[in-house]
Structure formats: C-alpha cells, structure tokens
Protein: ATP-dependent 6-phosphofructokinase
Organism: Peribacillus loiseleuriae
Amino acid sequence: MKKIGVLTSGGDAPGMNAAVRAVVRKAIYHNIEVFGIYGGYAGLINGNIEELSLGSVGDIIHRGGTTLFSARCEEFKTKEGQLKGVEQLMKAGIEGMVVIGGDGSYRGANALTEHGFPCVGVPGTIDNDICGTQFTIGFDTALKTVIEAIDKIRDTATSHERTFVIEVMGRDAGDIALWSGLAGGAETIIVPEENYDMNEICSRLRKGHERGRKHSIIIVAEGVASGIELGKQIKELMNFDTRVSVLGHMQRGGSPTAFDRVLASRLGARAVELLIEGKGGRAVGIENNQIIDHDIAAILGEAHTLNMNLLRLSKELSI
Ligand code: ADP
C-alpha cells in the first residue's frame, strides 16, 4: 500500500484530530502517502482530497472538533453515491482508507469495502455507542464537560435547595447519562435502555428530602424525555423548586482529555497497520486496555448494550 486516505464523518468528537494526526504520522513513518478527504463522504463524492504532510497535522492534538471537517451526506447512502466515491479514490490513486466516525460512518466504510475498496473504521463519537470497543474517542471528554456542569449546578442547587433536571446527549444510548450521573453523584439517572417510573423518581426525591438532602440532581438522556417536560412534571407532582438545564452541543466541544488523545493515537495507528497488513473491512477498538479489531460488518449487526451493573451501582449509591 503506497497511498491511503483518511476522513472524519458524522457527529464530530474531541480526539478526532488526535486520530487523524496518528493516521498521518504512522503512515508517513512507513513511507506511505496520506490524503485527507475534507467534509466526510460529501467531500469524497466531490473529490475534496488533499495530501497531508507531517506538518499539516502539527498543533492539532489538543484541539476539539475535526480539522478535516465533517458532514452528513444522504447521497452516500446510495450505491451511486458510493461508486462516485470509489471513482474519486481511484482517480487520486488511493488504495485504502481510515474512516473516523460513528455507526453511520461505519456503514459507509463497510459499503466501500464491499465495493472492493478496503476501509478500516475508527470509533469517534461522544456517545460511546459503537460495538467492538469499550470506549469511543470523545466519550471521556464529553463526560468531563458534563461533570463540570453537574458540579457547578450542584453548588447552586445546594444553596437554594433546588431540584435540578439536567438533560444530556444520548438519543439511543445512555452511556453519557449513566457515567456522568454516577461520577456526578446524581440521585436518578434516566437512560433509553430502561423504562423509567415517575412514581419511583418522586419517592426517591421524597426520601432524600425527608433525610435532609439539600438538593437533588436528575440526569436524563435526551432520547428518553425532554428535560423541560420532566422538570414540569416533577414540579407539579412534588411541588419542589425545580429547574432544568439542557447542556446541548457544549458536550461535543472542548480540548480532548489525555485519555481520548492516547486512545485516538493508539486506534489511529492500529488502523494504518491493518491497512498495511492488507486487512480492510475491520474496525478497531479497545478492550481491557488492549487494541483489538473486528469485522466491521459483524459490528454493524450487533446492538450496543449499556453496562447495567453500573446502573445498578448508581442506584445503590444514591439512596
Ligand atoms: P455517525 O457516523 O456519527 O453515526 P451518521 O449516522 O450521520 O453519523 O452517519 C454519517 C454519514 O455516514 C452519513 O451522513 C452518510 O453519509 C454515511 N452513512 C450513514 N449510513 C450509511 C449507510 N447505510 N450506507 C452508507 N453510508 C452511510
């Protein structure tokens, strides 16, 4: 393999830049030319491709977002769109590609591999919802952001004896809610993977109040219920001074944590190794601190599962 490409796609995540840097540096270390595809699959279809040098990925390891830009591209979901992409790659003489992104981006990478163009997926999403890896790039940084917010909200919640509902990201996966809720000492964590019971939430709030708790923090993943609606219901049912904070896109930004930078560096470098070994159609991940890889199509067939032991633990610790 003499020329490879790299793109970032779907929702951006802190640490994507560190992954791009690792791909570029590792490839050049092995005398392979690297081309950046700008703007995800939309950029690929349009041939928005430029060679990347060692220097072009300098000074980005600490930056959030993605310097290769990202996009959502409906056309790439069609065979015609995918073949246009393959044509652009052939024209540029690129023989393999590293795709950094989430589940949707993996589907694109799998489609390209099925068209005979080898791709390796690198899990980049704050949601931590990709199979074949314990952690995705960006999750740790998003947690850090949420924890900072919870800690600040806790200060004001305690001062005013308020109940706070904090809505965090997670349409289908409750990982951000669960981990941040556990780390932030939330009384209640509401995730898409488990039905929630308003009576139980109220009874917990009541018990806490009776034993003198000065504040209550409820974390809800956006995919389950709107924080604003939930706050209204709690206020009506409990008559507690209830406020709502919807954290929104701030969770996607910021400088990646050391964990995300190291993870991104290891995963990006391994993806290049796989292409060198002639192993396309793989997705890299981390399991028990070992870098592993799986068949990308197999991963797409699996459903992400939440760590229910952690959810149980959070309930035990927030009595
Ligand atoms: P993420 O990668 O973060 O999950 P999306 O689901 O938006 O984000 O996917 C990113 C892009 O991947 C889409 O805009 C589309 O171009 C491509 N993609 C998604 N699903 C498919 C699919 N089934 N086949 C081919 N490409 C896809």
